[in-house]
Hints:
Elements: E1 6-11, H1 12-22, H2 35-50, E2 55-66, H3 67-71, H4 84-99, E3 104-109, H5 112-125, E4 129-133, E5 147-151, E6 156-158, H6 160-167, H7 174-181, H8 196-206, H9 209-214, H10 221-229, H11 234-241
Parallel strand pairs: 1-2, 1-4, 2-3, 4-5
Antiparallel strand pairs: 5-6
Helix pairs in contact: 1-2, 2-4, 7-8, 7-11
Amino acid sequence: MPKNNLFILVDGSSYLFRAFHALPPLSNFKGEPTGAIVGVVNMLNKLFSDYPPTHVAVVFDAPGKTFRNDLYAEYKAHRPPMPDDLRVQIEPLQQIIRDMGLPLIIETGVEADDVIGTLAAEATRMGMQTLISTGDKDLMQLVNEHVTLINTMGDIRTDAQGVVDKFGVSPEQIIDFLALVGDTADNIPGVYKCGPKTAAKWLAQYQTLENLIEHADEIKGKIGENLRAALDQLPLSKQLTTI
């Protein structure tokens, strides 16, 4: 397959929330909210104008629980419910995306991130370049020589070096990094009081979470105690953060 093929994967769920919070409330003549719809459509049009794709897919989270809820009942348990004036825009937005001729993917039992990861891996296998449009840091783990992320809010593209510059770890270490720091938004437990700098320092020294766990006794001070207290839970945190 020619190397100039560009596969754009759009994180539709990320677009939805960002558009909803970025724009003032808008409505149609019936009084129905439309701000998120207008925002997402504008974002898609600009993305495809700036980066004309040869292949594209827009991926949304499906309603309901995923396999991560089966692994950990508290996963995303603290998130507030979606606002009603956002929820009612999802179905019409998805229909507009279909009417634009764009492939729309919604897969039950998994998250949009998982679908994006699967498609990006397949595109890499086929020799394609993939551009993932998202604001989700979890997708940094997918970055490689064939896969780049773009945050359209600031037109910021992130390649492998960009991941290192931002987090202090390589894309291959992002899963371990996220497991160590945890994620309050997703309610994924990490090591208590382990921030990004500490996680990056540990991974620079020990390379992997598994190796760090094996050498946990070498970590001194209170943070070392916190690490050892989290040893039983860290493999689960890694499972939850893995796309």
